[in-house]
């Protein structure tokens, strides 16, 4: 394995993804859901057509719009998407649409993206002008060395063993919602339609973004090569020894259906996804694979994608979605809740990415000193007579690139010189794309410098077309030292050459191979802690098909985009053997037979379950297993207001003889939502499991229920919203299955919602004295009507109801916490004003703060005022007058009843005595 030297440690405290950016909304564009119920009104005495009725009523309402999509899938979704031309605001148009009779719901259309925009080997910046409409051939087949292994990703999941048994997904239809496909590719069947590998599909967008309804999903622009790459991961065929690469898809005998929802600029809308999902259902697919994301979290409620995903799930169609590439390489950064939509949807199977065990393609070059230096590249550089090397100081400096290209062009050596630059933690290959502002060099080489990041030790080769037509090669950190030493010793440019005469490749192991890749987004689902991703698969440095043309018809990409089709293909393999199993049954088979992987920063620990889900998917074990455990994942939470972590699963013995299973626990790390400065985001703090029995015997063909309790780690700070996880192991003589779990590392219902600080009076009420000083008292606070008050309270948890009431000082209410010594007796000054309302059946003068809806944790400064004031139920703000009062804080616990006192975290403050005159 390669080694790397830690020079320095970088740590960032990054904020989780921002939800709710208006930039993600397509202006004045909406999905309109129509009622599927019959109406008494008719058009021309015919049975009512819901779309015609809408158009008539919209015309009557003077709405000017164009139709983007019409959805007509009774039982699943009926409606349309439209763009409205109006001078009114987005909200007012949405409100107007909602008032039209027959309209059930109106949702904005969101922009969609490929989840790879920050990766060096992403296609997001590929030049849309690279279009090869007439290309029919691909690169000649290179020669493998003895250690070449293009099948390492398949071997990681046991897929190669299934192929050896003839299990290749035959009879299963896989729908792919993506950028389209170059089905001319011979590895993808070199054709389209029934009888071909790409058996069907549809295009909802043209190359230029124009909405189109075409039965042809062909793409020839490299910027939309993503779908061709995804299709290859699922179903490509090896091409033998004459052209291309001998690399195989996960389910090469499955029928593929491609639905194009991106143009050549990689733009599209959520309404396009909806149209594609409905089309896939109509085409009878078994699984929908979506390597895409939406930039904004969809609104709560019956949004279309949530609804249709659930409908497809009910119909037995798996919806498998990339978790996203929003994580970072830093072990100190906030990572949780970085997963994207629509992978968060309840009916979707979210997928994380694991680094390939081997980098697929590494060649060798001999330098002027006779040193043999490996380099990674999609194809070998062919220059046996020797190319010059010209090094620039800063690969991210556009002026240096321009000067180098201009100089070499003037010398007539641009086509015979490799331009090299140092790849550092701060200047990755993606950052060097500004090289091409004048003329693209023919050859580029990234020299990897010493790094502190384990993920950066391995080669990184941008996708074909990322640097235009330039040929990019990468040299590892250790080998770069040899090359640069030779370059300097020879006298640099003009005195040093690289002789490229090796056209055979090897596939060396990667430093982080088999571990979660750095970009793979973390879960869990916001607020309910459901585990996402649910599965992980090889997604880093994946070799697959690419649109045909002079760049060769293949490329290497990384991302959860690549892991998702691997899982989709795995699902197809299992479905082909168990066609009667439900989506949940197949998911449970895949999850319980997956293999948890270690954390790259500390291999003494597993990666957190909210990073990897069940772990590395293994369809071979899923198919061959004689044991089934369900469900395939567990959510650790409050079972009731009084119990936490009580879990049950079922073990079914499918063997022909009895089996004895032992039960054990393997803990995964603990995570805080916001790590402290220099605190690793995964910590060796573990929960435990209390089993009723350590082993169970299950007769042949029988099943048993196993109950146990999952206990969170001790002494956790619930105010930092921690999560924990692990795996329940089910072992027999010949099998090991595991059930992943995740959840809040505390009872969300029973924890403190109001932040209490023993070192300072929090919560607190304070008044400003006439001399300007602030007074805080936990006994009696004597104030007059001219004195200004303020108060501060911190909430540690999300809540849906928060209020502060003014109560009589002698109230009989029993709070959770007191802001005073309740053993001290007082002679109360009773107000002459009677309470005007009540809270939980106790008299109240009204509120000084009252909020509902989703309320975030944080500090609230109570409304400013003077004396003692309250808001009556009719909205009147008044002072109850001279007397003794207490402020009462109530925060609704998650899952609690707003009308039940015990379902709130409550605090009762000291006496506030309002008097006339000076204090």
Low-confidence stretches: 1-22, 40-47, 117-125
Average pLDDT for all residues: 89
The count of DSSP E runs of length 2 or more, i.e. the number of strands, is 52
Number of helices: 13
What structural class should be given to the helix and strand makeup? Answer: alpha/beta
Q: Percent of residues in beta strands? A: 25-35%
Instruction: Report the biggest beta sheet as strand number plus sense, adding barrel if it closes.
Output: 8 strands, mixed
Strand order of the largest sheet: 9-8-10-7-11-13-14-23
Described by the principal axes of the CA atoms, the overall outline is globular
CA radius of gyration is 32 Å
GO molecular function, one term: serine-type endopeptidase activity
Active site: 178 (charge relay system), 226 (charge relay system), 561 (charge relay system)
Family: Belongs to the peptidase S8 family.
Keywords: Hydrolase, Protease, Serine protease, Signal
Would you give an account of this structure?
With 919 residues, the protein is α/β, with parallel strands linked by helices. Among the domains are: 91 residues, Peptidase S8 propeptide/proteinase inhibitor I9 (Alpha-Beta Plaits); 144 residues, Glucose Oxidase, domain 1 (3-Layer(bba) Sandwich), CATH 3.50.30; 119 residues, Sandwich (Immunoglobulin-like); 152 residues, no CATH class. 14% of the residues lie in helices and 31% in strands. The protein has 13 helices and 52 strands. The strands form 13 sheets. The chain has an 8-stranded mixed sheet with strand order 9-8-10-7-11-13-14-23, with helices on both faces. Strands 16-15-21-17-18-19-20 form a 7-stranded mixed sheet, covered by helices on one side. Strands 39, 41, 42, 45, 50, 51 and 52 form a 7-stranded mixed sheet that branches. Strand 15 and strand 16 form a beta hairpin. It is globular. The N terminus is likely disordered.
